[in-house]
Amino acid sequence: WDWILLAVTGLVTITFWYLRRYHNHWKSVGVYTPPGVLPGVGHFKEAAIFKKSAGWLICEMYHQNKSHPAIGIYIFRKPALVLRDLDLIKDVLIREFSSFHDNSYKLDEKLNTYLNKNLFNEKGQSWKTSRQRLGPVFSSSRIKSTFPLVQRVCKEFNEYMEKHLDEDINIHQVLSMFTSEIIAKCVFGLDDNVFNDPNAEFYQQGQKLWADSFYSPVMMYVTYFFPIVNKLLGRGLLPKDVLEFLASTVKQTAEYRKKNPDKVPDDYIQYFLNIENQDAGFTIEDVIAHSLTFFTDGSESSSVAAHFVIYELTVNPDIQEAVRQEVLAMDSFSFESISSLPLLDRVIQESMRKYGLFFMSRECTKDYVLKADGRSFPVRKGQEVIIPVYAIQRDPEIYPDPEKFDPDRFLPENAKNRHPMAFMPFGAG
To answer: A cellular component term (GO) from this record (predicted)?
Structure first.
């Protein structure tokens, strides 16, 4: 028994030492690390047992370490640098972008072929090439060209709401239907007709993304920190039947439009098909991948953002009435008129401040030393840098009384006095 006890003690000691040695990095380079590092899980003990989300833990560390421009943390065994100083954030996202241009999120390439072509996930030269090709997609003129389609969806939405005025409705579901129909029309050239048929195929395929357990927030979280999970389970992040539906839809649309060039609408999928016709390096697989980007990134995120705006207008009836009067004063419902609604614009910005991303992350692509307040923060190639967006946008030193919904924070005279990195609803750089 003595030998067994000795062996077990030795094994535990070796394991403890092995795990702990990963947590000496920030001390060795002179970067402050908050207390509470646990071998194997680092600062993420509560995340490991699903007591708190990783984003919330990062938010807490931001607020608990106000005297430090940046802090070194350990995400399980992996060192990462959390930036607090807004100038440091500007360095990473703008000034020294060439050293931090990759997103740190990693997916298995074979299992997530289409997702890896998403601008959010692409790396290095592949990202640069795609960004050049797709830059015009996000231009004002391109958005304006699809506005008649948006007007049609708004008309269908209004008719649906009028039919159900005397009923309780699930506002999140209705907003999901609204954004789904916009993407169906503006991106894929489809009339899904979801307001007349809630079982419409395009809408239902979108719902599968969030109903499928593997694409749930928990699995997104697990695969973010442990990319090997994808490979071990032998499946990609998105449901296979949804991918097959989208790929088939894109290919059928492409084939139809080649045979009927006189019936080609000016939508996003046609823009991608035009690139395919002009650029030998851009294939139908790229068309599918970038159409998928709108499908995955646009529908749920847009409906959730709209949901928060409606919630705040509901609990702030005085602001709601002021917005209503501003909208009613419009001469017509046009692209130009909705671009000239300053109060509504401030309401949307304030909502996105309160309900922003938890954090963004960048991967260091070459060794770099960040500097602030006379201190140095060495970051090695491959290490992760975290920008705690949610914490910044609820920092009382930047936004007094941050829990209060106050659109006047975004009046020009107030916004101009804030650091440009204090509000990052869509990132920066």
So the answer is: endoplasmic reticulum membrane
When computed from its CA atoms, the radius of gyration of the chain, rounded to whole angstroms, is: 24
What pTM was estimated for this model as a whole? 0.87
Q: CB–CB of 149/185 below 8 Å?
A: yes
Per-residue DSSP letters for 206-263?
HHHHHHSGGGSHHHHHHHHH-THHHHHHT--SS-HHHHHHHHHHHHHHHHHHHH-GGG
What CA dihedral angle connects 74, 79, 84 and 87, to 10 degrees?
180
Please return the burial class of 287, using the count of CB atoms within 10 Å of its CB with bins 0-12, 13-18 and 19+: buried
CATH of region 132-315? 1.10.630.10
Question: Where are the domains positioned within the chain?
Answer: 1-100+356-429, 132-315
* CB-facing half-sphere around the CA of 227: CA atoms within 13 A: 10
Cα(146)–Cα(142) distance, rounded to whole angstroms?
7
Q: What is the DSSP string of 16-27?
A: HHHHHGGGGHHH
> Class assignment of domain 1-100+356-429?
alpha beta
Residues 6 or more apart whose CB falls under 8 angstroms from that of 35 comprise none
pLDDT, one tens digit per residue, over 376-404 is: 999 999 999 999 999 999 999 999 999 99
Q: What's the rounded Cα separation, in Å, for the pair 252 and 140?
A: 29
pLDDT exceeds 80 at position 214: no
Residue entry with tokens 């074979």: 110
Q: Phi-psi region for residue 238, left (φ > 0), alpha (ψ -120 to 50) or beta? A: beta
Closest CA to 398 of 89, 35, 72: 89
Report pLDDT digits (tens) over 296-341: 877 788 899 999 999 999 999 999 999 999 999 998 888 889 889 9
**Residue 343, Cβ neighbours under 10 Å: how many?**
17
Identical fold, 1-100+356-429 and 132-315: no
Q: 3-state class of 98 per DSSP? A: helix
